[in-house]
């Protein structure tokens, strides 16, 4: 069961890292060329569409499963595998989930209040400026944190469990 949970934690972390990475290398560059009003509308549509069961399973699964498998693999003796998982948990919780909650979501919520219809070009440009730079900076942090957490989780997967006798010493 613990190997299965480790696999689920790795998959969930990988899925989130992949979503953030794909956004960074495809969506952000594509959106950079959009006019301000179209950019705001597209970001708002993505922020609504991303709240779905498939994304939620990995978005909430990784921060729940990582500490769980850390605890499982830290017993009875804290091992190198548990160390990788602890580091992955902390980096994911702070750099991915924490940054998303404290940085990206408040910016998303503020952008959602901007009404493009009837806004002047200057208002749309100001709304984009207030959003895009900060959002992209926070997004870069959570992307790298998720990738690093994934690498650490994979390292844990590749680390052999200590033999039972060595664990007793």
TrEMBL record:
The keyword Transmembrane helix applies. The chain crosses the membrane at residues 48-72, 84-105, 141-159. It comes from the Bacteria. Pfam families: Anthrone_oxy (PF08592). Keywords: Membrane, Transmembrane, Transmembrane helix. The keyword Transmembrane helix applies. This is Putative membrane protein. It comes from Chitinophaga polysaccharea. The lineage of its organism: Bacteria, Pseudomonadati, Bacteroidota, Chitinophagia, Chitinophagales.
């Amino acid at each position: 069961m613990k190997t299965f949970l480790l696999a689920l934690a790795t998959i969930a972390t990988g899925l989130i890292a992949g979503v953030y990475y794909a956004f960074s290398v495809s969506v952000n560059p594509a959106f950079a060329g959009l006019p301000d009003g179209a950019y705001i509308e597209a970001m708002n549509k993505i922020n609504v569409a991303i709240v779905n069961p498939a994304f939620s399973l990995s978005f909430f699964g990784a921060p729940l499963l990582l500490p769980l498998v850390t605890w499982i693999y830290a017993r009875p003796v804290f091992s190198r595998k548990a160390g990788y998982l602890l580091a992955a948990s902390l980096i994911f919780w702070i750099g991915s989930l924490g940054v998303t909650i404290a940085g990206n979501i408040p910016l998303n919520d503020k952008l959602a209040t901007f009404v493009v219809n009837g806004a002047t070009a200057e208002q749309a440009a100001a709304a984009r400026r207030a959003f895009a730079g900060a959002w992209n900076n926070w997004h870069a942090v959570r992307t790298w944190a998720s990738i690093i957490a994934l690498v650490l989780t994979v390292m844990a997967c590749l680390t052999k469990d200590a033999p039972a006798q060595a664990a007793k010493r």
